[in-house]
Amino acid sequence: MSLNLNVVFQPGVFSIPYPYWHQQNLPITTPQTTLTANALYQLDLLLAQQTSPANTAAIIVEPVLGEGGYVPAPPEFLQGLRSVCDKHGIMLIVDEVQSGFGRTGSWFSIEESGVKPDILVMAKVGRLNTYLVLLQANPSTFQGLGNGFPISGVVSRRELTDTLTPGSMVRLCSLTDFQS
After folding, report:
1. 1-122: what fold?
2. 13 in the Ramachandran plot: left (φ > 0), alpha (ψ -120 to 50) or beta?
3. How many CB atoms lie within 10 A of CB 71?
4. Which is higher by pLDDT, 12 or 174?
5. Rounded (5°) CA angle 117-122-128
6. pLDDT at 157 over 60
7. CA 85, CA 21: separation in Å to the nearest integer?
8. I need a surface site. Which of 1, 2, 18, 135 has the fewest CB within 10 A?
9. Can you give 138-175 as a three-state secondary structure string?
10. DSSP strand E in the chain: where?
11. What's the alpha-carbon Rg for the chain, to the nearest Å?
């Protein structure tokens, strides 16, 4: 299930409105609690009318909406998604491609909500200070992070990664591998 409304989905993929006044066609003054309640209500309806929790493998969310404006998800919304996932045995996948690695003030924006995802997707990995030094030193030769090659990663809880068979992924690290 995806929370992005701007694409055509394959059968079995559904979306709900993001808790953002513009996507819900409400006034800009609408309280965040109302927007969150509306979005979670739409998720409840979707799971009751269009699909079932038993047929839902995962919910995928960007903690900061990257298309249609940079809109951070309210912590209550992300906590509500975690609650729905826990209640029904659905995995919560967080897409941090545009918001991870310090872009919102913490390493990953999901941290600000206190929510722990089952899977975290990231890309464009690099150290911000290295990026700035390279750009300032010689902007014409800067090739981007990874020397021009895209870098991405998938991080998961150890309970999930331990179930994978050898060779199914090149290298997997659990979140505990990064804890000090």
Report:
1. Aspartate Aminotransferase; domain 2 (3.40.640)
2. beta
3. 17
4. 12
5. 120
6. yes
7. 24
8. 135
9. CHHHCCCHHHHCCCEEEEECHHHHCCCCCCCCCCCEEH
10. 58-61, 64-65, 71-72, 91-95, 119-123, 152-156, 173-174
11. 18
Is the Cβ–Cβ distance between 92 and 115 less than 8 Å?
yes
Contact 3, 18 (CB under 8 A): yes
- Using CA atoms, how far apart are residues 174 and 108, in angstroms rounded to an integer? 15
Q: Is the dihedral of CA 74, 76, 77, 78 positive or negative?
A: positive
pTM: predicted TM-score of the whole model, two decimal places: 0.74
DSSP code, position 50: T
Helix axes 32-49, 75-88, angle to 10 degrees: 20
Contacts of 55 (CB under 8 A, 6+ apart): 12
Domain boundaries, the chain: 1-122, 124-180
Question: 98 and 62 in contact (C-beta within 8 Å)?
Answer: yes
- CA distances (Å), origin 101, targets 28, 56, 72, 124, 137: 30, 29, 15, 9, 22
Asked whether residue 152 carries a pLDDT value surpassing 80, the answer given is no
Confidence of residue 134 (pLDDT cuts 50, 70, 90): very low
Mean pLDDT of the chain: 77
| pLDDT tens sequence across 17-69 | 899 998 888 999 999 999 999 999 999 999 999 889 998 989 999 998 877 67
